[in-house]
Every structure is written in C-alpha cells, then in structure tokens.
C-alpha cells in the first residue's frame, strides 16, 4: 500500500487536483484544540496520512520524517490490531468513489483500543476513532486518545475484582463469570475442583507467610496444566478450579486431575520433609454430561469432591450412577426439611416407653416428624439423610426441643420423662449443655423432665473430654442421659464405666430379630446383665410382639418401647398418665 504524508497543503502531483486533504495541518490543529484529542486524517485513494503534533508526540514519530501509514501501523504492538486497522483503511481506499457506489459498510465508524510501543520502548494504550467523511471528500478523519492512565486505573480495578492477589490466578468471581459465559456459548467443558488439605497446619506452625508461599508454589504448578485456552482459578483458601473446553471432556477432566496431582507431588514432598502432610482430592464434572448449567456443575463438583475425599488421598471422582442418586436424595431431603422447618411444619411426636413390671406408660421419646403441605406426616424414614447435614440436624434438634418444652409447659404430667434425641452436631457444640439448661429454665421447667438420648457412635473418637464435661453439667442439674442404639455403634465398654450415663437403650435390631437369629437372645441377655451389674437402667426398643415382651420381662429389662405399645403420636393424642 502506498502511504505518505503530504505536509501542509502539498498535494501529490499524481493525484487529481482537490483529491488530497483539504483538511490540512492547521485544520487538524484546530480539531485537536477543540476536542482535546490527537487528530489525524487519511486519504484512502492516495494512501496518504496526515497527523497532528499531538499524534506525532503520542506515537513517538519524529517531527522531521513523513508520517507514513506503515510507520504509524508499526507502532501497534499487536499484529492482529495492525492488520485490522490496515484492512479497514485499505477497504476505505478501495472504496468506490463516494456517492457513486455503496459505501454504507465502509462508512461504519471505527473505534478501537490498542497498545502501541514508542521508539523508546514505552507502552501506551491508545483509543482510535475514525469516520469516513461523506462525499465528495472521501477521506477518513480520526482522533487518537492516550488512554494509558484511564486504562491503568481500569486494569487495577479489574485486577482487584478478578484476580486472586496471593497467587495471581483468577478468583472465584472471575471464574463464575467465565463459567456462565462458557455455558451460554454451549461449550463442552471439563472441570476439576481441587481441594488441598493440611495447609492450615503449615499456617499454624510456620506462620501465614509460609503457608502463602506454599499456595503460590502450588498455583504456579497448576497454571501450566490446562493448555492455552484452559483456566486455573483459586476459588477459596485451598480450593482450586481447573477448566478447559474439550471435545472429550471425561478424558480431559481425568487427565487434568492426574496432572494436577503430579504437579502437587513436589510441593507436597517438600512439605512432607518439613513434617507436614499435605493432601489433595479432586471432584470432576463435565458439561453437558453432568449438568448443563453453572449451578448444576458446581453442585456436581462439590458432591464429587466430597465423594473423592471419602476414598482417601489423591483421589479424583466423578459423581455418577448410584453415588449421584444418593447425593441427590440427600439434597432433596435437606431441601424438604429446610423448607418445612422454615414454614413451621416440624412436629414432635411422642412414642410411649412402658414399664415391663407395671405395664404402664412411664415416659416418652420425642421423635421428629414433618407435616407436608398436604397434611401428611413423615418421619426420618423419608428424609433421614437430612439428619447427616449439620444445619438440618441442628435445626431439627432445636425445633424438637422447643416443641417438647412447649408441650411440657402445657401439661408436664401427661408426658412424664421425655427422651430427646440430639445429633452429634448439637452435642459437640461447647455451649450445648449451658444452652440446653438455659432453655429449660426459660420455660420454668425442671431438667429432670428431660432425658438426653445420645447415639453410641457420638462417643467414638477424639474430643470425648468436653463432651463428658457437658454430660456431667447436665447430670448435675438433674437431667438423665441414655445411650441410644446400644450394641450397634462402636462405643467401648469403657464409656459405660467412665461416662455419666443413666440408661442404655438396647438397639431395636436385636429385639426385632429375636425369632430370626438365635444369637440375638444371648446378646440381649448379656447386655441387660451388664447394665444391671453397672447399675444402669435399660430400655428395649423395637418391641413389636407379645413374645418380645415376655422375653424381656423375664430378663428383668426395665422398660420397653415399640409398636406393640404404640407408635409415636402427637401430644394432643396422648392419654393422661396414671
Ligand atoms: P431412634 O432414636 O432409635 O428412634 C426410634 C426409632 O424406632 C423411631 O424411628 C421409631 O419410630 C422407631 N420404632 C419405634 N418402635 C418401633 C418398632 O416397634 N419397630 C420398628 N421397626 N421401629 C420402631 P424414627 O422416628 O423414624 O426415627 C429414626 C431415627 O431418627 C431415630 O432413631 C433418631 O436417631 C432419629 N431422630 C428422630 N427424631 C430426632 C430428633 O429430633 N433429633 C435427632 N437428632 N434425631 C432424631
Ligand atoms: Ca432415640
Ligand atoms: Ca434407638
């Protein structure tokens, strides 16, 4: 392409008179003054460029030389931008004589931002605007604005909003934006949600700076794994996301995870030599296979991750088949319970405990029920998985306690002693005992009306200390404590010795299976004998038949609970105790 500058009013002799710039240097200077922007003009037919002093200055074009189009284009850093601008201007040059042909397309205003490099090596961001002047001039006039500072500010803001400061990776917000965008454009995606374990210990022992250094190292290791068009983001503390578009997303996700674990091996090895056990697990998901939308994908990834963690270190898992169904059932149960609790449809139902010796109801167990919108009542059989959710279990426990205290306030004599179930999540709360006693006191009730039913499995493992302290506080206040489902968990017999327990509840599986398996009878016999020896009271659950009653009564079991004596009923349906 031929391009040249004509200087002020120095027409090219080869061009027809009047075809060159009637807009001369003085005109540009005037434009520049008015707009505060650099001004330039280009004659497409002559291929000639005219630039104002400010444009010269911004581009770093020497005053003395002619400004040729190529000299201007050479300043553009991006070859793509250079070609684009050249093509646009070339098109204009090849345009039919304005007014004589179709110039609508070519006359579309041009506006774009690009980066230029000055001869001294400085990078500047400039904004170019141009328009084709209407016939009969048929030239392009444009402005050039140095937006370096504006751009720097905007970049700073953009970085603050989108980049994780510590690692330089994309942050959660930016990732979500990118994911939504990918979903909108229907991309086939492979995703890996990577979770690290053990970093907190590094922070605790060596300080945050050291933990940050490890994180940076890990981030650097992960950065190279996803290819040019993939991305790595840091979603939270020690949670990373890898994503790429791939026609075979299953294989891509699997291979990203494998390579991620490999990339982590070295930092993990270094940490191990310093005495830290770092671990990683990965949840995998693909689009559209596992979910079509962003929310579904995130859910699938989180579920897959928790599934992967169950299988031990350095595991990656998809959430498919049976596992997926289990997670979905759990999610449905949680949603069902949350909605019901919110809407005040949680109910305490009471199942009688009958004294074998007297045949009378002496106590009740409060059992959680949910009333559906259509009035039907359901129990944990329908939504049991929600009891494994911290939030749901706590809400149920609190809701049932509130209902029990309310009913006791109404008529304590009708209920007698009430067994209340508390999940491990409630029991492990350090303020549990104090809060429970405060609630009871608020209702002006006596703690000895309540019996805490604690599942045996709660007693397994560490941190027994605070738990037994809480039990002692409650017991000192007069509350009774029963060990629930006894014989099925993994509690050690030493708990019977060391914990302040009043009663054991024989698990219903032994009683229900009395006539199916001859080994149930000696187990029940042994447990009841043990309880007697330790001076603990006994309640047998799952008493459904007269035969079970006779068997347990003969063993001198204290109380029985089961469908033989009646199911759980609402407070209003309970008979008065004699
Ligand atoms: P659990 O504490 O062992 O409660 C006894 C369960 O056995 C109840 O089931 C009861 O309906 C059932 N049952 C009673 N008699 C018989 C019988 O003769 N035969 C048979 N086959 N079953 C009988 P439910 O109400 O479905 O509760 C199941 C579990 O859900 C409870 O077992 C308890 O672990 C939990 N749960 C119930 N309410 C609460 C609560 O308010 N908080 C917490 N954290 N857990 C609760
Ligand atoms: Ca119970
Ligand atoms: Ca039980």
What does this structure look like?
The protein is α/β, with parallel strands linked by helices and 578 residues long. An 8-stranded mixed barrel has the order 12-13-15-16-17-18-19-20, surrounded by 4 helices. Strand 17 (480-486), helix 17 and strand 18 form a beta-alpha-beta unit. The chain has 3 domains: 25-153, PAS domain (Beta-Lactamase, 2-Layer Sandwich); 165-319, Alpha-Beta Plaits, CATH 3.30.70; 331-573, TIM Barrel. The protein starts with 24 loop residues before the first helix and ends in an 8-residue tail after the last strand. The chain is built from 20 helices and 21 strands. One calcium ion is lined by residues 484-485, 505, 541.
Distance between the termini: 109 Å
Estimate the mean pLDDT confidence. Answer: 88
CATH topology of the largest domain: TIM Barrel
Beta content comes to: 15-25%
In total, the number of domains comes to 3
Give the tags.
6-stranded mixed β-sheet, TIM Barrel, Alpha-Beta Plaits, 578 residues, binds ligand C2E, 43% helix, elongated, 20 helices, binds calcium ion, Beta-Lactamase, 3 domains, 22% strand, alpha/beta
In short:
Helices cover 43% and strands 22% of the residues.
């Amino acid at each position: 392409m031929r391009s040249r500058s004509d200087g002020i009013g120095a027409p090219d002799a080869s061009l027809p008179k009047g075809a060159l710039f009637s807009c001369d240097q003085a005109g540009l200077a005037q434009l520049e003054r008015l707009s505060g922007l650099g001004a330039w003009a280009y004659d497409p037919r002559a291929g000639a460029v005219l630039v104002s002093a400010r444009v010269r200055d911004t581009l770093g074009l020497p005053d003395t030389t002619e400004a040729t189009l190529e000299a201007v284009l050479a300043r553009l850093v991006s070859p793509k931008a250079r070609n684009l601008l050249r093509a646009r201007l070339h098109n204009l040059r090849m345009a039919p004589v304005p007014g004589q042909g179709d110039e609508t397309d070519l006359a579309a205003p041009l506006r774009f931002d690009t980066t230029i490099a000055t001869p001294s090596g400085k990078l500047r961001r400039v904004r170019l605007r141009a328009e084709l002047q209407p016939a009969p001039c048929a030239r392009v006039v444009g402005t050039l604005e140095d937006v370096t500072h504006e751009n720097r500010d905007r970049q700073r803001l953009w970085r603050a909003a989108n980049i994780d400061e510590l690692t330089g990776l994309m942050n959660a917000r930016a990732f979500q934006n990118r994911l939504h965008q990918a979903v909108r454009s229907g991309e086939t995606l492979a995703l890996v949600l990577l979770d690290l374990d053990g970093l907190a210990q590094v922070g605790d022992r060596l300080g945050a700076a050291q933990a940050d250094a490890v994180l940076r190292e890990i981030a650097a290791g992960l950065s190279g794994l996803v290819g040019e068009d993939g991305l790595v983001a840091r979603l939270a503390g020690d949670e990373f996301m890898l994503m790429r578009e791939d026609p075979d997303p299953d294989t891509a996700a699997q291979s990203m995870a494998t390579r991620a674990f490999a990339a982590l091996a070295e930092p993990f090895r270094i940490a191990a030599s310093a005495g830290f056990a770092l671990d990683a697990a990965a949840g995998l998901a693909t689009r559209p296979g596992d979910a079509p939308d962003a929310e579904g994908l995130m859910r699938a990834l989180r579920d897959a991750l928790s599934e992967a963690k169950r299988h031990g270190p350095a595991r990656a898992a998809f959430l498919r088949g049976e596992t997926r169904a289990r997670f979905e059932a759990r999610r449905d149960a949680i949603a069902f319970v949350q909605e019901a609790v919110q809407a005040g449809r949680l109910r305490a139902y009471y199942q009688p405990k009958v004294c074998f010796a007297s045949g009378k109801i002496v106590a009740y167990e409060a059992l959680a029920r949910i009333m559906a919108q259509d009035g039907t009542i359901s129990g944990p059989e329908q939504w049991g998985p929600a009891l494994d959710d911290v939030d749901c279990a706590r809400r149920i426990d609190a809701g049932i306690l509130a209902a029990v205290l309310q009913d006791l306030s109404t008529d304590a004599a009708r209920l007698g002693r009430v067994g209340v179930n508390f999940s491990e999540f409630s029991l492990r709360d350090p303020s549990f005992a104090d809060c429970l006693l405060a609630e009871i006191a608020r209702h002006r009730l006596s703690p000895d009306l309540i019996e805490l039913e604690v599942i045996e499995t709660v007693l397994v493992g560490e941190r027994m200390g605070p738990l037994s302290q809480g039990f002692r506080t409650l017991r000192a206040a007069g509350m009774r404590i029963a060990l629930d489902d006894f014989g099925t968990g993994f509690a050690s017999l030493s708990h019977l010795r060391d914990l302040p327990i009043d009663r054991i509840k024989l698990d219903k599986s032994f009683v229900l299976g009395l006539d199916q398996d001859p080994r149930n009878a000696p187990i029940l016999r042994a447990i009841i004998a043990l309880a007697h020896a330790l001076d603990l009271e006994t309640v047998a659950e799952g008493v459904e038949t007269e035969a079970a009653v006779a068997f347990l009564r003969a063993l001198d079991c204290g109380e029985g609970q089961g469908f033989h004596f009646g199911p759980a009923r609402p407070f209003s349906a309970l008979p008065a105790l004699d």
